[in-house]
Write a structure and sequence with these properties.
This protein has a single domain (38-333), classed as Na+/H+ antiporter like fold (Up-down Bundle). By secondary structure, it is mainly α. Helix 4 (67-90) packs antiparallel against helix 11. The protein is globular, with a radius of gyration of 19 Å. The chain has helices at 2-14, 18-31, 40-62, 67-90, 100-111, 115-127, 140-162, 172-181, 183-197, 201-229, 240-267, 271-282, 289-296, 302-333. 76% of the residues lie in helices and 0% in strands. 52% of the residues are buried.
């Protein structure tokens, strides 16, 4: 009983994070009918700044890292991303009132990764003085790209069976290139390469790092307002999306936390790294995923997969998931 009380005490402590405060503040503003708006250009600039900072830090650290240490976490990221899509295909996509292509697209979006959720988790870990390998954000594409490719592959296979029995060709190379050209992965990978190959320490320490938390607060405020406004979209689709959006992020994150714990005992993967792996699995793409799925699965209803992600999945992943995984790490690894 004492252990359980201690765990919940730690969990409640995590809710004092500024990142969560701005997210909840944005939702409250939207709920009260505030006319406050953050211009889209500013939102995109904040996302770019966050990803560049994450990428630069990762690249600087990878120089000294043992690439062998990254192998098992990268494999886990790949497996988890694909597993999330497969589970969604054979659960959500088969529920009554859920169109198969909508369920597959939703699973693909939840299998992909949210850069903003990852950034929020990194800040919360730093606030709690929980260390993690700076290369962990580089696992992003290992989970994100396979999830999107698999979702599109499953959708094409479904369409082929229902429209004539011939399997449509899926050009994985084109999907990978489109994903890499997306704004989120482009900024992250650019930062990684610059940090790895050039002397960017001074610009990182003098510009990107000091502004990181300020830009994140603007991003969280914007996401909170958008989450509330998109709730109305879910009224037009099956209520199963609400259930999926509420529970899937936590289930996905706990699966990744368990596998990350195995990596911790096998390779010394840090507790903070385990938390970030769980956060990536529990998040759902808010930047690169939606346009990719809209282009590749045009018949899927964006109100279903974007509504479930933005209005339910992202707030759950940030407000409940991140504190949960940090509290679990403190309990399991004795931080």
């Amino acid at each position: 009983m004492d252990l359980l009380l201690d765990f919940f005490g730690r969990l409640i402590t995590q809710f004092q994070s500024p990142a969560l405060a701005f997210l909840i503040g944005g939702m409250l503003l939207a709920a009260c009918g505030s006319k406050l708006q953050i211009p889209d250009a500013i939102y995109k600039f904040c996302v770019f700044m966050l990803l560049m900072r994450i990428g630069l830090q990762g690249g600087l650290e990878i120089r000294q890292a043992d690439l062998g240490e990254m192998l098992l976490p990268a494999v886990i990221a790949f497996v988890v991303g694909c597993a999330i899509v497969l589970v969604g295909r054979f659960t959500l996509a088969r529920l009554p009132g859920v169109r198969t292509e909508d369920g597959i697209a939703t699973a693909g979006l939840f299998g992909a990764v949210s850069a903003s959720t990852l950034a929020a988790a990194m800040v919360m870990l730093e606030e709690q003085e929980v260390g993690f390998e700076a290369w962990v954000p580089a696992l992003y594409p290992f989970m994100d790209i396979p999830a999107l490719i698999l979702a599109i592959l499953l959708a094409n296979m479904y369409f082929a069976r229902t429209e004539g029995g011939k399997r449509a060709r899926v050009h994985a190379g084109a999907i990978i290139l489109d994903s890499l050209r997306g704004s989120a992965l482009s900024a992250l990978l650019l930062g990684l390469l610059l940090g790895l190959l050039t002397n960017t320490e001074r610009v990182f320490e003098g510009f990107y790092d000091p502004l990181f938390r300020g830009f994140l607060s603007i991003l969280m405020l914007t996401m909170g307002m958008e989450a509330w406004t998109r709730l109305s979209e879910l009224r037009r689709v099956a209520h199963w999306y609400v259930v999926y959006g509420a529970f899937a992020p936590l289930v996905h994150g706990l699966i990744a936390f368990g596998l990350g714990t195995i990596a911790h005992y096998m390779t010394g993967f840090s507790p903070g790294g385990v938390v970030l792996l769980a956060v990536m699995a529990g998040s759902s793409s808010d930047i690169s995923g939606p346009p990719t799925l809209r282009a590749a699965i045009p018949s899927a209803n964006p109100s279903s997969y974007i509504g479930a992600s933005t209005s339910i999945g992202t707030p759950v992943a940030i407000a409940i998931g991140i504190p949960l995984y940090i509290a679990l790490a403190e309990a399991v690894f004795g931080l």
